[in-house]
Amino acid sequence: MKRPKNDNFLRALLKEPTDHTPLWLMRQAGRYLPEYCETRKRAGNFLNLCKSPTMACEVTLQPLARYDLDAAILFSDILTVPDAMGLGLYFAEGEGPRFERPLREEWAINNLTATDPYEHLGYVMDAVSEIRRALDNSVPLIGFSGSPYTLACYMIEGQGSSDFRHIKGMMYSRPDLLHKILSVTTDSVIAYLNAQIDSGAQAVMIFDTWGGSLSNAAYQEFSLQYMQRIIAGLKKEKDGQRIPSIVFTKNGGLWLEKIAAIGCDAVGLDWTIDIGDARRRVGDKVALQGNLDPNVLFAPPEVVAAEARKVLDSFGPGNTGHVFNLGHGISQFTPPDSVTALVDAVHGYRQG
Q1: Which of 122, 182, 248, 293 could form a disulfide with 148 if both were Cys (CB 3.0 to 4.6 A apart)?
Q2: How many domains does the chain have?
């Protein structure tokens, strides 16, 4: 299988020279786009949208129709995996995701089993296949999953949390139970990402949104080691093409060298770290993805462009090993024209 016509994103992840710094945005198919809101309304609710391959394909392509982006990312949700484990995912209006049956009891944890992605998550694989066909080899498609620790946060808390007292209580009082959850979830994520690769994903990303809430020792024991297991278990090639992997821990700058050492091709950075410092710290070990503060997009277009150039200047010379992105997902309140200003600035950038 040939690489996409625009393969700059894949080249950057593999630290090969690129025509320009490639750009995509976390949560690029989302509520800031009026066309997305219309499709979501037609779907009835968020889960219906995720579980319809045709609608998931439609919203995946919407930002690419509007902006000159260098990659598409599968439209789905990180919580599809624990939902497939039978925890009863639902979305309360205005309150985000919740689980009907959070994992608090020892018997429920011991009964937890890994999911078969084709049996329980076939709608995701159908969406990946449909999106690849629709892209017609124009840009690469990114598949993704939540990290085991981040998924466990929702599985144990039962919803988003500000203090993580249930999962951290388990971590310190019954670490054996948390390791059981993380181990089963890791097996599920490996199978899930490999199924996405077999269905057509050309790169994969692990979102460790809550890993940065851990202490130094706990991060390595309960988050990083499980992501390392996933990277080791991933298919590295499909149809003669390398399948690069990206690991992103929000607030993970403290552990940059350790993340870079787990075998991934690229490390995602949030906006709290200077990307030039990050590049000096990891050397040629991995590519870097990031890392503009998403709130810059609320500024006037000329400020958006100037802030983007600061990130590019900081990364330094050579279009090698940098994928431009935000430091976290784009806000639903972002003016769509701000993204136009950002894309134009990044693609028009020339080292001064």
Answers
A1: 182
A2: 2
